[in-house]
Design goal:
Layout (H helix, E strand, L loop, with lengths): L1 E5 L1 H4 L9 E3 L2 E3 L3 H9 L7 E8 L21 E6 L6 H4 L1 E4 L10 H7 L20 H14 L20 H6 L8 H10 L6 H6 L8 H6 L28 E5 L2 E5 L27 H12 L6 E5 L8 H12 L6 E6 L1 H4 L6 H8 L4 E7 L8 H12 L3 E7 L8 H13 L3 E6 L14 H14 L7 E5 L6 E3 L5 E3 L5 E4 L5 E4 L4
Helix pairs in contact: 4-13, 11-13, 15-16
Bound molecules: iron/sulfur cluster.
Length: 509
């Protein structure tokens, strides 16, 4: 007989409302508050509420039907375990604490730079050239990276990678990444949506493979001009929850702070594609930043500030330090989270200065990297991840489930294992949003759930992200488990939000 610890919250029975929980013939009451709190409060700090049971070691109970995906631990508390023998749920629940594997004490890197003054930089309001900042230091770092990684093949080794970013269809054709015959049809695409492919990403593209999953994510496609009726310019409803410029306050205890609107690369499925890209927005002015942070300072319930955008690591170290310094003065903000694609798409941006600037906030710092395919974890990317971890910053990943990129269980499994191997905890697997011109990336909820169910059968808890849907219109993220979904007669779906409201979601393919 073996002792099996099943993570009911993550992958087992739906725990919802005042129900009995049926597990392999046993039944338990309780746990509703934890489960509901988790489902309604998707945050990086929520622990997983589990039951332990005794069962034959060769027979796992059928606990993979659904999971309240949000109740994942990110700050020390890995699981709240309920001892199997306990009669009273409420009295006997125990909290088990352990340090996340990826958390490391501050090392010399962070300390080395923490005492330094700001580096030479440009004005806060300027975007072009921010990624070329710290050039001398980048070169020193790049020397290490390019020795480990593939040659990008664009220009001389001394050429700055930011300058070597391919920023137009013409650049992509000239680099041999696109067929010249397709250029004409793509002019309208590049006029509407940003195009940028860094040398690091270009080096990962297999030019001989017409279905290359890296190319599909970054090279423009004429189908981007086909907008479907269900698609929206603001698919997750940021605008409806924006109390101040650059700020989104959707959940009570956390805010998004959008500092800029540019990225080192432009993903063809970006959910903010109507507002992200050169010329689509500006860096948050000092005045707007002050207003946004005043809003945060006035609300003690705000526990976490999430820097997003655009890519926060495209900002200069000085700008990041200025933001971190202002956050440091808000004691109730405990967590600073950064959403970025830079570690894989532009690892040169992960500099000691930027990391030290973030750590100077004095908050618990989490870096959530956007990674969609295992090949993105190249040697330079892994080196960048190592720098982040060595600076004492926890590393998590979010992945978008994308048709033609990672919509195969073997591909997803390989990615999740590669992430865990690099001590990056898979956090979210996002169902793609209803962004304009992204229909060719979307798969149905049904298919996504089937893929996820198989993934859950294959992976351990630390390798399994939460599969979530951001309900269109700003109703928040929900785990894609049965308790949040009802199928309509016409094949579409009704998704239940955190407040119990129901929303239509199309059937898809
Ligand atoms: S990195 Fe993020 S914000 Fe930037 S284009 Fe890609 S998905 Fe959009």
């Amino acid at each position: 007989m073996g002792r099996i610890f099943e993570k009911i919250g993550r992958s087992g029975c739906a725990i919802e409302g005042p129900r009995r929980i049926e597990i392999g013939g046993g039944a338990y009451r309780g746990g509703n508050r934890v489960a509901e709190g988790a489902g309604f409060e998707p945050a990086i700090r929520f622990p997983v509420y589990t039951l332990s049971r005794r069962a034959p070691s060769t027979t796992r109970p059928p606990l993979r039907k659904s999971r309240p995906a949000q109740i994942r631990p990110r700050i020390g508390a890995h699981y709240i375990h309920k001892p199997p023998e306990c009669k009273s749920f409420r009295k006997s629940s125990t909290l088990k604490l352990s340090a996340p594997a990826q958390s490391r004490p501050e090392n010399s890197d962070a300390r080395r730079f923490s005492g330094r003054g700001p580096i030479a930089t440009r004005g806060f309001g300027r975007i072009s050239g921010q990624m070329t900042e710290d050039r001398a230091r980048y070169r020193a770092e790049r020397g290490e990276e390019t020795n480990q990684g593939p040659s990008h093949g664009f220009g001389s080794p001394a050429r700055n990678e930011a300058e070597a970013t391919l920023k137009s269809v013409a650049d992509l054709v000239a680099a041999g990444l696109m067929d010249p015959a397709s250029a004409e049809a793509l002019r309208a695409v590049e006029a509407r949506y940003g195009v940028a492919v860094t040398p690091e990403i270009a080096a990962l593209i297999d030019r001989a493979d017409p279905a290359d999953p890296i190319a599909r994510q970054f090279l423009p496609d004429p189908r981007e001009l086909e907008t479907r009726p269900e698609e929206r310019s603001d698919p997750i409803g940021d605008d409806a929850f924006s109390p101040a410029e650059g700020l989104v306050h959707r959940y009570p205890d956390r805010v998004l702070l959008k500092l800029l609107s540019v990225c080192p690369v432009y993903c063809r499925f970006c959910f903010r594609r109507e507002t992200v890209g050169l010329g689509k927005g500006a860096t948050l002015s000092d005045e707007a930043l002050a207003r946004a942070l005043a809003y945060v300072a006035e609300r003690p319930q705000i526990f976490e500030v999430i820097l997003t955008g655009g890519d926060p690591l495209a900002l200069s170290a000085r700008r990041l330090a200025a933001v971190a310094e202002k956050l440091a003065a808000i004691p109730h903000v405990a967590v600073l989270r950064i959403h970025t694609r830079a570690p894989t798409a532009a690892p040169r941006l992960v500099t000691a200065e930027r990391l030290a600037a973030l750590k100077a906030s004095g908050k618990a710092v989490y870096m959530v990297m956007h990674v969609d395919h295992a090949r993105e974890l190249s040697a330079p990317a892994r080196a960048a991840v190592g720098r982040i971890q060595s600076a004492g910053i926890s590393t998590l990943a979010q992945t978008v489930l994308l048709a033609g990129v990672n919509d195969a269980v073997d591909t997803l499994e390989e990615l999740m294992r590669a992430l865990v191997r690099a001590q990056i905890e898979p956090y979210y697997l996002h169902h793609p949003d209803l962004a304009p011109g992204t229909g060719h990336f979307r798969l149905s909820l049904e298919r996504g759930r089937a893929l996820y169910a198989e993934l859950a059968r294959r992976l351990s808890g630390i390798a399994l992200p939460s599969y979530v849907l951001d309900i269109p219109g700003g109703f928040g993220k929900v785990p894609l488990q049965q308790s949040h979904l009802e199928q309509d007669e016409d094949g579409g779906w009704r998704v239940r939000d955190r407040a119990g409201g129901r929303h239509r979601y199309p059937a898809g393919d």
